[in-house]
Amino acid sequence: MDKLSLKIPGKPEYIKGTRLFIGSVAANAGFDIEQCEDLKTAVAEACKNISCHGSDGFSDQYEVSCEVDTHQITVTVTDLCEQHSVEKVNKPCDNCPTEGNLSLFIIRSLVNDVHFGKNNDGFKYITMVKRNDC
Question: Which residue from 92, 114, 96 is spatially nearest to 39, judged by alpha carbons?
Fold first, then answer.
């Protein structure tokens, strides 16, 4: 099992790079293009949710880690800061619903398993599992 991780600044413009990272990992693990796109979209939504949703600013830093196994990839996005101090210029989440929002629905629809929680340090995380059914 291979393990990889990135620490990402909370600025939204870094999500595109995270998408490329996850897409490359999935493609190298033998996932087809549809599965890669599903995983990229789910991870991007998780990054937005962890770094932004429900806060007045973006998270200073979060981590995207993945474990690549023979037939699946497990990706965990974890908030690494105690405050969200990166300024939101456009306030993209002002009108976001608080519970059952679209982001979580998208994630659930694109991966096989998903778990939301807080780690021992009290930081939010989202863990997603995408299986390679080919």
Answer: 114
Distance CA 134, CA 31 (A): 8
Q: Two tokens at 133? A: 């059914």
- Backbone φ, ψ for residue 87 (5° rounding): -60, 135
Q: Write the pLDDT tens digit of every residue in 64-84.
A: 999 999 899 999 999 887 665
In the chain, beta strands by DSSP E: 2-9, 57-58, 61-68, 72-79, 86-87, 113-118, 124-131
pLDDT tens digits, one per residue of 84-107: 555 555 555 554 545 446 788 899
β-strand 124-131 against 113-118: which pairing, if any? antiparallel
